[in-house]
Amino acid sequence: MKLLELPVRTRGVCCDLPPAISDTKAQRLAGALRVLADPARLQILDILRQAETPVCICDFPDRLQLSQPTVSHHMGKLKDAGLVEVTKKGIWSFYRLRSGTEARVQALLDAVS
Amino acid sequence: MKLLELPVRTRGVCCDLPPAISDTKAQRLAGALRVLADPARLQILDILRQAETPVCICDFPDRLQLSQPTVSHHMGKLKDAGLVEVTKKGIWSFYRLRSGTEARVQALLDAVS
DNA sequence: TTAACGTATTGACGGCCGTCGATGTGTATC
DNA sequence: GATACACATCGACGGCCGTCAATACGTTAA
After folding, report:
1. For each of chain A's 113 residues, which pLDDT tens digit applies?
2. Nearest-CA neighbor of B48 among B86, B92, B88, B95?
3. Which of A41, B71, B78, B99 could form a disulfide with B84 if both were Cys (CB 3.0 to 4.6 A apart)?
């Protein structure tokens, strides 16, 4: 439980703060969060979460009202972040959530909303 | 459980995707995540989480190796997002996590790390 | 082989954001 | 009052990122 008592301070004197997350870890976390901090990518993840089979990337431009290169760009970000996997068959690319990602994504959306 | 079976597709024919998060909700979520997607703000939240009493903002510039205006800027973002509260006493501004924020932040960091 | 389709990549543009110096405001000390 | 301190705001700069047109690559159909 947090106290409401305010510390007594002295002019011109600053205090040391307790050690926190390391700079490198903070940057890793921030990077992971930045991948999710985009409306299009959130919708992609939500759609993949609902889907019962891998989804063809060709269906997204219409759904998201974005160009094909832009959708491909977002998918690349999600793939680099290890959130989605891709299976190519013929001329099509089918994307799905990586195993274990679903729970993390769900927890994230719950934590924010 | 997700099937690995790939859908059968036809050239030149795209499929409709199931409805997902609305555009407005996706933007809200993305905005909330963007506030957290910064190393400095993550460290601020982590320090406030550990603190047993409200923390004077004057202690952060040294700790984060950032200028005073920059720290003030980050605190403003966190305050606007409803993540922290401020109490002014004399010339000092003391910040603390808003009640209920701690659990949400913790859940978020768990979901990402 | 040629043509059509799906996808990824490239290059360029515009906007957003983190950062800092300078400045303004308020408060306490002398 | 005058000075010093803490804080917020403003203006400007630089870099990152989402977006798209154009292009290149690979695959399938004709």
Report:
1. 555 799 999 999 999 999 989 999 999 999 999 999 999 999 999 999 999 999 999 999 999 999 999 999 999 999 999 999 999 999 999 999 998 888 887 877 776 66
2. B95
3. B78
H or E element that contains B24: helix B23-36
Distance, C-alpha B24 to centroid of its chain = 18
Q: What is the dihedral of CA B104, A27, A95, A65, to 10 degrees?
A: 80
Chain A segment 12-51 residues within 8 A of B by beta carbon are 14-18, 20-21, 23, 26-27, 29-34, 36-40, 42-43, 46-47, 50-51
Facing residue for B3 by CB, picked from A17, A30, A52: A52
